[in-house]
Amino acid sequence: MPVLTLEQLNEFLAEHFPQGDQYGALERVGPGSAVMRLSVSDQHLRPGGTVSGPVMMALADVAVYAALLTKIGPVPLAVTSNLNISFLHKPQAGADLVAEARMLKVGRMLGVGEVYLYSGDASEPVAHATITYAIPLER
């Protein structure tokens, strides 16, 4: 059972990270996991008609943040300390991006997660990221 439910996590993000909704919407959460979907529009595209790297990085980052919060609870000051992303394939034009995140390790001060990004109905990921979050000692 996650520390935060999907409804609680959506309420928390709306209050503490309202700009986050431009990076996608949470669809599911579980203990140490989160799935987010971004409905890609023209504002997310770069020249050439592909989703920009910063948009994919932001989706990945918020998905791991949500997965982390399912383990540690509502901690607004947990922050990204490292993000490494590999862009594997060009996303499909006009298709949603789906981020599937899971925590690999959650300690007292750091949480490490990974996320795969999928485009449309493709079975192969378009990107993979590992992300580390610094967790404040006082929660």
Automatic annotation (TrEMBL):
- Cite the Thioesterase domain residue spans from the record: 48-122
Q: What is its EC number?
A: 3.1.2.-
Q: Which domain of life is it from?
A: Bacteria
Task: List the GO molecular function terms.
Answer: hydrolase activity
Sorted alphabetically, the keyword list is: Hydrolase
Coiled-coil intervals, chain numbering: none
Family annotation (Pfam families)? 4HBT
What's the protein called, per UniProt? Answer: PaaI family thioesterase
